[in-house]
Input
Amino acid sequence: MLLEVRDLHVEFRTRDGIAKAVNGVSYGVDEGETLAVLGESGSGKSVTAQAVMGILDMPPGRITGGEILFQGRDLLAMKEEERRRIRGAGMAMIFQDALSALNPVMSVGDQLGEMFVVHRGMSRKDARVRAVELMDRVRIPGAGQRVRDYPHQFSGGMRQRIMIAMALSLEPDLIIADEPTTALDVTVQAQVMDLLAELQREFHMGLILITHDLGVVADVADRIAVMYAGRIVESAPVHDIYKAPAHPYTRGLLDSIPRLDQKGHELYAIKGLPPNLMDIPPGCAFHPRCPMAQDVCRTEVPPLYEVSGVSEASGVSGASQERGSACHFWRECLRG
Ligand code: SF4
Output
């Protein structure tokens, strides 16, 4: 396994109390695999990714438990210098807002070239050549001329391509893309997602795609991990989730995707708000919003049940490899 997160716990100390942002998250991603991590804001998906990258603000953040293994080595036990080496060459991150992630007073060519100068010891001239190649690879038209331009001279979609080029520059084994298309309009979103998927296949990298939008992951992800209140509530191969979700929250997210064949119908929205992480509801954290909640849900925290042997009821083939749901009533949910 390229990356394995095991029982990770992260909290933030605030003036008002302790926010439990990540509460026992475990997931893994292999080389050449795409894992989509899905959830509303505050679900813990980005905080988990920041802990993996080693860019969590500490304090106020604190990792209170768990392990993060990258190529079999525990990142949390490493010195900062070693982690810095892994960032860039071993793993890289693509952020949502390229404009604030890029340096506004440096040309994109210099920013891309800097990676090769600092990490590979290249001359500025050679680094510039590599920068143009990378810009070409992410299909920026006229890369040879545009290499001298500054970030504000590019459109949102082109800036996101530059972010992708930067992340790819040192050919990392793992890329974490945190809401990489949220700030873009729908057509550009699709182009950027296609490019990311194509490069991931070409470089055979592991990709963790963090998103709140189940609509963008269907064609690119191999697996989906759905997070709620700092926990994974459903984890499954992508097609199983679309065919028959085994958690009411996942079902709600799927029902919220606008569909062309349902014109005139009111768009479904999950009722209520995500929980306050300083005061997570007892039992199943989703129970105040769940249409299937029963008494047991208010008192007993559901473990991540193994979902298996449900092929006839759900239409999901076989014993759904490595599928889990943190719902006491996952069988009923599967049946729809
Ligand atoms: Fe809903 Fe209960 Fe399942 Fe939680 S455990 S998702 S409240 S049915």
